[in-house]
Write a structure and sequence with these properties.
Blueprint: E1 7-25, E2 31-51, E3 55-59, H1 71-82, E4 88-94, H2 105-120, H3 127-137, H4 141-146, E5 149-153, E6 158-161, E7 163-164, E8 169-174, H5 181-186, H6 196-207, E9 212-213, E10 221-222, H7 224-231, H8 233-245, E11 250-252, E12 259-263, H9 266-279, E13 283-288
Parallel strand pairs: 1-10, 3-4, 7-9
Antiparallel strand pairs: 1-2, 2-4, 2-5, 5-6, 8-12, 8-13, 11-12
The chain binds cytidine-5'-monophosphate.
Cytidine-5'-monophosphate binds near residues 30, 138, 139, 155 and 156.
């Protein structure tokens, strides 16, 4: 009798980018980035059930494709080809992370699938092997294999975990429309100057070989904002509103459309949410950065 379980459920967390600098265009068409990603408490739930053959996907959100274009499907396909002979899988996704919001939902689902199927099929793949497979699915997927907080470089696939010394709470603003990441990158106007925070993050987290992103090492910044704001001017107006109630900082997450305000305490975050709810129609959420 097989020792492997017949069904497994895993949480698949969203992320925000506390810092994102684009350093240049690469010959492969991607961009060289330096980013600090932080997982947040908002999550999807994925359930993997062993079936005799094939990959079947089911999702409770009509916005999510249930075919091979879904990154979770791609992750399952990749693992099946890498380790044949383990039967098939039915994947059920309970969706809470809005698609196209810059919160990494699809990438996180792909990483959760790699982790879940590694257990369901008893493959015994090491984290490094899962990260290498993850990089073939998408630039953000390797981050989600380990999750929590990490500085990511290259096109995003070179992941160095960090421990954030402060607690973070975020007010999420979900404008309700998706943004195309390729469009935001394509519309970027590159300048040669790097923001001050870039050097500080490099120095504090990488050059010094420190594992802690110390107080003051993180300066909220996202180079994709100017491009996204040109394409979707409403996002610029929303950022101003969030900054007015979250003086510590407000940013677009990744390529958007979600924005977030940075808060030190849960109370502060709920206060900011309350003020925003009187002024905005967008969906609002208070989430905690995963410690
Ligand atoms: O890797 P992923 O498929 O998530 O990337 C989606 C798109 O975002 C890419 O096709 C590319 O247009 C853009 N991108 C980029 N540079 C990165 C990451 C993404 O240009 N570092």
């Amino acid at each position: 009798m097989s020792k492997n379980p017949s069904s497994i459920s895993v949480s698949s967390y969203a992320k925000v980018n506390l810092f994102l600098d684009v350093r240049g265009r690469r010959p492969d068409g991607y961009h060289e980035i330096l980013t600090l990603m932080h997982e947040i408490s908002l999550h999807d739930r994925l359930t993997f059930t062993a079936i005799p053959r094939g990959i079947r996907l089911q999702c409770d959100s009509p916005e999510v494709p249930c075919d091979s274009s879904n990154l979770a499907w791609r992750a399952a396909g990749l693992l099946k080809r890498r380790s044949p002979g383990h039967g098939g899988v039915h994947i059920r996704i309970e969706k809470r992370i809005p698609p196209g919001g810059g919160l990494g939902g699809g990438s996180s689902n792909a990483a959760a699938t790699l982790r879940g199927l590694n257990r369901l099929w008893g493959l015994g793949l090491r984290r490094e092997e899962l990260e290498a497979l993850a990089a073939r699915i998408g630039s953000d997927v390797p981050f989600f294999v380990r999750g929590r907080a990490a500085v990511c470089r290259g096109r995003g696939e070179i992941v160095q975990p960090v421990r954030l010394e402060e607690r973070y709470y975020y007010v999420l603003v979900l404008p309700g429309f998706p943004v195309s990441t390729p469009d935001v990158y394509a519309n970027l106007r590159m300048t040669l100057t790097s923001p001050k925070g870039s050097a500080r993050l490099q120095h504090g987290v990488m050059v010094m070989g420190e594992t802690n992103a110390r107080k003051g090492a993180i300066m909220p910044y996202n180079r994709l904002e100017s491009s996204a704001f040109r394409l979707y001017p409403v996002l610029r107006r929303l950022k101003k509103e969030v900054l007015a109630v979250c003086p510590q900082g407000a940013l677009l997450s990744g390529s958007g459309s979600s924005l977030f305000g940075i808060c030190r305490t849960r109370r502060e975050a709920w206060g900011a949410r309350e003020k925003l709810s009187r002024r905005l129609k967008a969906k609002l959420m208070v989430v905690q950065g995963r410690p």
